[in-house]
Amino acid sequence: MSSAVLQVEDLRVRFDQPGYRVHAVNGLSYQLQAGRTLAIIGESGSGKTVSSRALMGLLPPTATVTGSVRIDGVELVGMPEDEMRRHRGTDLAMVFQDPTRSLNPTMRVGTQIVESVGAHNKEIDSAAARQRAMELLALVRIPDPQRRFYQYPHQLSGGMRQRVMIAIALASDPKVLIADEATTALDVTTQAQIMELLTELRSRLGTAIILISHDLGLAASYADEVIVMYAGRAVEYAPTRILFGQLRMPYTRALLDAIPRLERPSHSPLPVTPGQPPDLTALPPGCPFEPRCPRAQPVCAESRPPFVEHEGGHWWACWNPCTDGDSV
Amino acid sequence: MTHLLEVNNVVHEFHVQAAGGVRGGTVHAVSDVSFHIDAGETLGVVGETGSGKSTLARCVLQAPRPKSGSVRFQGTELVGLRGRALQRGRRDMQMVFQDPFGSLNPTWRVTDIVEEPLIGFHDGDATTRRRRVRDLLDLVGLNPDTYGNRRPRQLSGGQCQRVAIARAIALRPALLVCDEPVSSLDVLIQAQVLNLLEQLRSELGLSYLFISHDLSLVKQVSDRVAVMHLGQLCEVGPADALYRSPRHPYTVDLLASIPSLDPTKPRSNARAISAGEPPSPLNPPSGCRFRTRCPRAQQLCADERPLLRELGPSHLVACHFPEPVNEPNGSATTPSSATPQFARP
Question: Over 60: is that where the pLDDT of A17 sits?
Fold first, then answer.
């Protein structure tokens, strides 16, 4: 597809440690169109954060990244750091989970935004950079930007700090904005505000958004497409309505069933998936979810199900997928 | 009728200093909170960060002692007790914390951690204690032979939380205070731990004071729910009634902010957007503390603090202008009538 702003193909990340090797991402492929939101959902250790940091080139030197990441046709994997620096921020920007630790506590927030504006546009003079920073603060709906510009991060609330982080990320008009658990540390009302802001910015600026989260509810409410990851692989991928309408992957089913719901009566037992996620240093030859899967069959332990498009736009990796009847 | 735990007009404040230690300020963490828990009952407390829910839980345990008010547990007034008397008074009240690693001593083995409260209260000799520890680990679903000799760093988050629960129930408490016990766990592990808490409740007849920021989670575990905002309770009621028909505008906002699991349902949180951020507990608004974010606020709300009053069977609401009651078959305007499309039959 030509309109895809971001193309990820067979992305693999492994960490080499003395004595063992962690296979964090094992062949992840997806495409993202401009102005769309893709949610990457998974538990801790599923590779969702590592894969997005691999896109940004932000992994430590112990990581080995292979595969292909193309943004507007430019290959990022294997690009030298000084060249990568030109794409990071301008093409891809990231908003992290913890806004408190992502901001410099000793600098006024305005200065931090100005710095980020200047970093991507060397020609801009200081007055124009300030002007732009003020605009950004207004863009992310910070009330009274004139006053907030001169405040320090500790004087802002968590939601406000996350808005500043988004302003910094948007300083260079990125094509893709990666929100890595950007609302996890926030309260539910603040989360709703930040998500509405991201959705609004997406339609105003045409930025594509990758939403990384453990929260399927966030994906259902705000994403156009969803990838569910398990043990470093995508296990289900579909447009949001199709995914939640016709679940195929037993793992996604298990995730969805384990979430406490308002509709459920109090004290009703939750369906339990036994066991722990697999050890990423020694992945089994078969499906990594097989030991915990209620639908497991002998073939599941022997060979890994391929991740292919089974129905229009709906991809999954399972030998014995759920049928429509189960998914209600 | 006496309640297992009765908390009346508890107030707790922290004094803080601004940069340089010049100007002092007072954080009104818990301001005049009253509630009760009956034997075998679970009370869920929900609220946002800074609403004072953790401070409230700690005040119940007298750590720290509340500034004023009364905490009666099993008929004994705990406020004012010291030393041995306090220890005896709260022996049947234990706590499970949010951070499963941080609440366990990293250098101790699992068996030592679970045995510690038994030693502290001189419960049995060494042999019976060891047997009890094995039983406890079995009860929380950890094989004592596999896990007994491990240290916390050799356990996953969910396993650490199981150890913390085993330690908390070692003294056969009547009340377990759980402060965000599953917030740091992944959803599949979270379901395992929630089911464990549920199983212990029915097997041991435990009562819970369950603190969380997650409304769906609180619904799952609670008989009654208390909604806390800026140090005050704004709504207390039976879980079903409160979620079916929230009467306090803040509860309505909280429920509307939960992302729906149904992508075909339009988002209904335009209201939460307008509600803004919570005011500072250093300088709470006069009258109703929610009025600055409230769409229904009027002059009366600024002048007079609304007190909890009963608007339905055991359904208390602190609001001058409460939301109208939802009919049981539900209008579509509130999230509590969310389509049960994904609920299992």
Answer: yes
Of B275, B338, B341, the CB nearest to A262: B338
Q: Do A196 and B338 touch (CB under 8 A)?
A: no
The proportion of chain A whose per-residue pLDDT surpasses 90, expressed as a percent, equals 59
Tell me the backbone φ, ψ of residue A141, rounded to 5 degrees: 60, 45
By 3-state DSSP, what share of chain A in percent is helix, strand and coil, each rounded to 5? 35, 25, 40
Which site among A163, A213, A263, A324 would you substitute to test the B interface, given the most B Cβ atoms closer than 10 Å to its Cβ?
A263
Residue A113 reports pLDDT greater than 60: yes
B188 touching chain A per CB within 8 A: yes
- Please provide the average confidence, as pLDDT, over all residues in chain B: 87
Inter-chain residue contact B259 with A222, CB threshold 8 Å? yes
Q: What amino acid occupies position B170? A: A
Residue with tokens 């699992």: B110
pLDDT tops 50 at residue A214:
yes
Task: For residue B272, list chain A residues with Cβ-Cβ distance below 8 A.
Answer: 189, 192-193
Three-state secondary structure call for residue B315: strand
Q: Measured between CA atoms, how close is B241 to chain A, in angstroms? A: 11
Contact state of A266 with B263 under an 8 Å Cβ cutoff: no
| pLDDT tens, residue by residue, B11-56 | 999 888 766 655 678 889 999 999 999 999 999 999 888 889 999 9
Say if the Cβ atoms of A196 and B222 lie within 8 Å.
no
Render the burial of B125-146: b for 16+ CB within 10 Å, e for the rest. Answer: eeeebbebbbebbebbbbebee
Give the pLDDT confidence of A245-286 residue by residue, as tens digits: 889 999 999 999 999 988 888 888 899 888 888 888 888 899
Q: What is the pLDDT of residue A263?
A: 86
Q: What is the ipTM score, two decimals?
A: 0.85
Contacts of B295 in chain A (CB under 8 A): none
Q: Give me the DSSP letters along B199-257.
A: HHHHHH--EEEEEES-HHHHHHH-SEEEEEETTEEEEEEEHHHHHHS--SHHHHHHHHH
Q: Which residues of A touch B215 (CB under 8 A)?
A: 188, 262
User: pLDDT by residue (tens digit) across A172-193?
Assistant: 889 999 999 888 888 888 888 8
Contact assignment for A241 to B264 by CB distance below 8 Å: yes
Contact assignment for B262 to A218 by CB distance below 8 Å: no
Residue A125: CB atoms within 10 Å: 9
Structure tokens belonging to residue B76: 């004994």
